[in-house]
Write a structure and sequence with these properties.
Elements: H1 6-9, H2 12-40, H3 44-52, H4 69-95, H5 101-126, H6 132-159
């Protein structure tokens, strides 16, 4: 079955459904990034401080405490489940886009690796592997880049005209 380019031939109603879903999903995704920016300063040391606390830092303006194991398991569990569903749905939509097969495969698969590295990395950082903050920063950035590129491709192709559309 040929999937490449089906998005261009979808009826207007389905394109509106997909576009609405992608818009709301993007608002939620980028709001989550704003939350990360507010809570961890979006840098490796801020990430470390968010999960390990800063009780020893006498100059800290906001006191943060090390997360409990229950909190960490809840964060990792909920994010891995929800992000896997998000990237599965985006991947399904991207699979019908008109795109180079290798680029498409990368954009479909990469976010799953980034989810594991990001949230697994956060857990291992909490366990004491401090260098994981760099893995978390890199994989989180790559995940965001993949999401943004995938969404841009989908939105662009939803607005493209096709001779047999409608």
């Amino acid at each position: 079955m040929k999937l490449n380019g089906i998005i261009l031939t979808l009826p207007k109603e389905i394109k509106i459904l997909i576009g609405s879903f992608i818009f709301v999903l993007s608002v939620g995704f980028y709001t989550g990034l704003l939350f990360v920016s507010e809570t961890s300063s979006a840098n490796p040391n801020g990430i470390e401080e968010q999960y390990l606390g800063n009780e020893e830092d006498e100059e800290a303006t906001i006191m943060k405490f090390k997360k409990s194991e229950k909190e960490m398991l809840s964060i990792v569990h909920s994010h891995m489940l929800s992000m896997s569903i998000i990237f599965f749905l985006v991947g399904l939509i991207l699979s019908i886009a008109d795109l180079n097969k290798k680029v498409k495969l990368f954009l479909i698969i990469e976010p799953f690796f980034s989810v594991i590295l990001t949230f697994g990395g956060i857990y291992f950082l909490w366990k004491g592997l401090l260098w994981m903050k760099y893995v978390v920063m890199f994989s989180g950035s790559l995940m965001t880049l993949s999401f943004t590129l995938s969404i841009a491709i989908i939105i662009f192709q939803l607005f493209q005209k096709h001779s047999s559309a409608n």
